[in-house]
């Protein structure tokens, strides 16, 4: 057995959940029959949802006809939960996004340098505007890659994260943003993934409110947060123009009802939550939309 694999098998016993998750995701792609017993032993002791899922995928890659549930019993592939398929998709998405960025970034940089030297009035040209658009696309793919990556689980203050996101989104001072939630509110999760999703929700709420053409001071945006025995949550409720179109299609990459938008914001937000075995919901209200994020507590 290669030393690298042996080292990673030992990391499955680490006290650090991030190390266990990285090792489990490695074997989800590269497990061999000789790893099976130790993977099963790691699964039997693991109580963190997304690490369990990666270990189950590793065992499924060794025995494609079945995988192990929480009791150790074999389950037919027809009963594989949606979460299992979603994490396989996340791994593929992260790999594809990484390869795309690796190939496009140097070509785009060379193209911009050539255009700057060869095109007169480059700064005001359509070429520059289109290159800027491509830069935005590459940045969005990079955010999508981050959203699909393995979460780094840590404790953090959810109320402080919400306040920081409100400040960083910008233009919030022109809007009435009401905050409601326990302080302090210490939770577990990947704070950078939660920030990715929350920032998108806040920007959407601000844009929807501004699009009404009414005084935003009379259309408050309500941001609330908290946790239950099983999960943590953030909710954003606006009184904007509401959502037009198919709610389910809103999460597809490249889908947007807004002119000039790349249509990746909600896809990034959704993937960020799914990387933590959570979910993102858009719920139309009589006026406006509720943007709700939920992710499980570490031992849920």
Can you give a write-up of this model?
Helices cover 50% and strands 15% of the residues. The chain is an alpha+beta fold. The protein has three domains: 3-80; 83-148; 154-296, 2-Layer Sandwich (Heat Shock Protein 90). The strands form three sheets. It has a five-stranded mixed β-sheet with strand order 4-6-7-9-8, covered by helices on one side. Strand 8 (279-284) and strand 9 form a beta hairpin.
> H/E series, N to C?
HHHHEEHHEHEEHEEHEE
Number of strands: 9
Helix content: 40-55%
CATH architecture of the largest domain: 2-Layer Sandwich
CATH superfamily of the largest domain: Histidine kinase-like ATPase, C-terminal domain
Strand content: 15-25%
CATH class of the largest domain: Alpha Beta
Average of the residue pLDDT scores:
80
For the sheet with most strands, the description reads: 5 strands, mixed
Count up the domains. 3
Defining key terms:
flat; 9 strands; Heat Shock Protein 90; 300 residues; 9 helices; alpha+beta
Kindly summarize this structure in a few lines:
The chain is an alpha+beta fold and 300 residues long. It has nine helices and nine strands.
């Amino acid at each position: 057995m290669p030393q690298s694999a042996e080292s990673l098998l030992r990391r499955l016993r680490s006290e650090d959940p991030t190390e266990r998750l990285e090792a489990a995701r490695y074997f989800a792609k590269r497990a061999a029959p000789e790893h099976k017993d130790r993977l099963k032993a790691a699964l039997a002791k693991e109580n963190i949802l997304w690490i369990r899922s990666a270990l189950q995928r590793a065992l499924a890659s060794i025995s494609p006809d079945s995988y192990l549930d929480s009791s150790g019993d074999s389950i037919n592939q027809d009963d594989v939960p949606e979460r299992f398929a979603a994490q396989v998709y996340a791994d593929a998405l992260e790999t594809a996004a990484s390869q795309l960025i690796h190939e496009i970034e140097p070509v785009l940089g060379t193209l911009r340098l050539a255009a700057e030297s060869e095109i007169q009035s480059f700064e005001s040209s359509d070429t520059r505007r289109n290159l800027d658009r491509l830069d935005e696309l590459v940045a969005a793919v990079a955010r999508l890659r981050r959203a699909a990556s393995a979460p780094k689980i840590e404790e953090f203050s959810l109320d402080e994260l919400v306040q920081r996101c409100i400040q960083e989104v910008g233009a919030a001072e022109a809007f009435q943003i009401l905050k409601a939630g326990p302080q302090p509110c210490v939770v577990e999760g990947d704070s950078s993934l939660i920030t990715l999703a929350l920032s998108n929700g806040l920007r959407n709420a601000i844009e929807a409110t501004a699009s009404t053409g009414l005084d935003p001071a009379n259309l408050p945006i309500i941001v609330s947060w908290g946790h239950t025995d099983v999960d943590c949550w953030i909710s954003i409720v606006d009184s904007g123009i509401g959502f037009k179109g198919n709610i389910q299609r809103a999460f597809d990459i490249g889908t947007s009802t807004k002119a000039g938008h790349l249509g990746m914001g909600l896809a990034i937000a959704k993937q960020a939550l799914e990387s933590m075995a959570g979910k993102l919901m858009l719920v139309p209200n009589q006026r406006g939309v509720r943007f709700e994020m939920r992710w499980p507590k570490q031992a849920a």
